[in-house]
Amino acid sequence: MKYFFVPGRNYDLSKAELQSVISSNIKSNFNFEFKPRYILLTSSEGPEVIARLFNRLGGFISCGLVYDDIDLVIDEQKDKNKVTFGISVHTDTPRKYPKAKIKEVLDQIKDAFKSRDISSRYIIPKALLLETAQIIHNDVLEKGFELVIFDFDSRIFYGKTLAVQDINQFSMLEYDKPYTDKEMGVLPAKLATIMVNLLGLPVGSTVWDPFCGSGTIPLVSLINGYNVLGSDISADAVEGTKKNIEWLASSNKLNNVGFNIFVYDVLNPDNRVVRDLRKTSIQGIACEPFMGPPQFKPLAPYKAEKLLANVEALYSNLFEVLEKIRLTEFKAVIVVPSYKTFNGWMTVSLNKILSKKWRIDSNLIEKDLHWKRSDSIIKRNIFVVSKKN
Ligand SMILES: C[S@@+](CC[C@H](N)C(=O)[O-])C[C@H]1O[C@@H](n2cnc3c(N)ncnc32)[C@H](O)[C@@H]1O
Fold first, then answer.
1. Which ligand 1 atom is nearest residue 185's CA?
2. Which structural domains are found in the chain, ordered by start?
3. pLDDT digits (tens, 9 = 90+) for 163-181
4. 39, CA 20 to 30 Å: which among 139, 211, 229, 311?
5. Contacts with 162 (C-beta within 8 Å, 6 or more apart), sequence order
6. Which of 132-161 are b and which e, b meaning 16 or more Cβ less than 10 Å from the residue's Cβ?
């Protein structure tokens, strides 16, 4: 079967996330075709499996099944009395799809249902694409379908959406949790999910965030079935993360996962904690260090240098501790910031952070994985590193 995936804003990051999740969860053969605006996956796995894996992702807007013929999508609804449906068009030639043309296709589908005595209602996209909120609020996927037309390089094919991003859950994680510390910086929940997915770990593994702050990485890890260790130099952050986990557990079913959140200063590691960590089975680290307060205009270069020196110190110490913990099979997904300064962008080289015992994942070496809004002053570069054997 062939599936389509529509990535979010940071294509390379989404692509790496999907490769990691699919290759660590699907054991049968599969094949990807990477296009600039969508990704196709050929796999013998059924739609339920693919939709379930999609629901773990942070970097994708929707996924669905590819169809050769629109009629097949309509035929599938034959046992329903009432159908809600909509259309989205992904294309490099939007002028081929004026609103009137989309409405014409929607009316034709409505007529096809009428001729089969099925009553139907359609949702008109505001532009070419139905918004995720429109799909969710109108129960389009439960009560009918979203037909997706892909028209690129004069090649047209169709799809039916299987699942859309759970925007309500992401927004809840971002805005509704009881504890947050904006001055320290909060990781976007979608990026935290992508980072944890880049670890490519089996469900039930243990993930450690040594700079947990308000606990975004612990929260998304627990949701996706991982055990969590979270630590921070700040006792307030540790209490806040615990509160946020309790809040999550009260509204979300967390299955067979455990957590331990504790105070720990990466720059002055307490040897007792290091000894305790040695007894745990951490398989991965995902974290974002302290990167300074929120920035609204380009920085003076000396300020960026100071912030980067702090990031370098935090990571060099962290990786030294990781060597002391003597982990074997082990991966880390880390954020390294770049700052926009009066003299251009400044960052810190990974060589300064990592000893020779660590290497960047070979399939990601040349990739520029980052998360950034067009106007932001801080760019988050994402690196996936593992320990050399
Ligand atoms: C950018 S915040 C992490 C944000 C977190 N990912 C979230 O989404 O809320 C960085 C955190 O690093 C912590 N931190 C700073 N210096 C530290 C140190 N030496 N050891 C451990 N944590 C430290 C800060 O207290 C802060 O909570």
1. 1
2. 2-165 (3.30.2130.30), 168-387 (3.40.50.150)
3. 999 999 999 999 999 999 8
4. 139
5. 3, 47, 50, 51, 54, 63, 64, 65, 141
6. eebbbebebbeebbbbbbbbeeeeebbbbb
